[in-house]
Amino acid sequence: MSATDTTVALPLPDSLLAALEEAEREHPEACMVLRAVRSDVGAIIDFEWLWANPAAARALGHDAEFLRGRRLGEVSAPDGLADRMDVLRQVVESGRPRADNFAEGEVWLQSTAVPLRDGVLVRLRDVTSAQRMEEGLRDTLDWVRDVLESMPDAFFTVDTDWRITYVNRKAAALTGHTQETLFRRVLWEACPEMCGTPMERALREVATEEGYRLFELRTARERWHEVHTWSSGRNISAYARDVTDKKRVQAERDALLAREHSGRLEAEALAQRRTHELMAARERLVQSEKLAMAGQLAAGVGHEINNPLSYVAGNLQFAVEQLTALARRAGAGPAVQASLGEALEALREAREGAERIRVIVRDLQTFARADELRLSPVDVHTALEFGISLAMTHLRSRAQVERCFGQVPQALAHEARLGQVFLHLLINAAHAIPTGDFEGHRVTVTTRREGAWVLVEVSDTGLGMTPEVLQRAFEPFFTTRPLGEGTGLGLSICLGLVRSMHGELTATSIPGMGSTFQVRLPVAEASVQPQVPAVREADGPQRKRVLVVDDEPQLTAVLRRMLGRQHDVVVAHSGREALALLEHDDAFDRVFCDLMMADLTGMDVHAELSRRRPELLSRFVFMTGGSFTERARTFLQAVPLPRIDKPFEPGLLLALVDSSPPRPGAVVRHPAREG
Question: Where are the 4-aspartylphosphate residues found in this chain (predicted)?
Answer without folding.
Answer: 594
